[in-house]
């Protein structure tokens, strides 16, 4: 496991933009759960 994390750290050091991409992806995925859970309201009648 340590070997894999060292490879990931080396990759992120060589490609610093990927850190921003991974952060943005994590942020969007964490917000998607809230949106899906909040979209369950039902409107009855006119």
From TrEMBL:
**Pfam families referenced in this protein's UniProt entry, alphabetically:** DUF7503
Protein's name in the database: Uncharacterized protein
Write down the species: Haloferax denitrificans ATCC 35960
